[in-house]
Amino acid sequence: MLTDTTFPASFLWGGAVAANQLEGGYDEGGKGLSIQDVMPRGIAAPPTTEPTPDNLKLEGIDFYHRYAEDIALFAELGFKVFRFSVAWSRIFPLGDEETPNEEGLAFYDRVLDELEKHGIEPLITISHYETPLHLARTYDGWTDRRMIGFYERYARTLFERYGDRVKYWLTFNEINSVLHAPLMSGGIWTPKDQLRPADLYQAIHHELVASASATRIAHEINPDIKVGCMVIAMPIYPLTPDPADALKVMQVDHQNLAFSDVHVRGEYPGYFLRELREAGVELDITDADRETLKHTVDFVSFSYYMSLCEAATGGRAGEGNIMGGVQNPTLPASEWGWQIDPVGLRIVLNQFWDRWRKPLFIVENGLGATDVLVEQNGTMTVEDDYRIAYLRDHLVQVREAIEDGVEVWGYTWWGPIDVVSASTAQLSKRYGFIYVDRQDDGSGTLARHKKKSFGFYADVIASNGASLGA
Question: What are the coiled-coil residue ranges (predicted)?
Answer without folding.
Answer: none
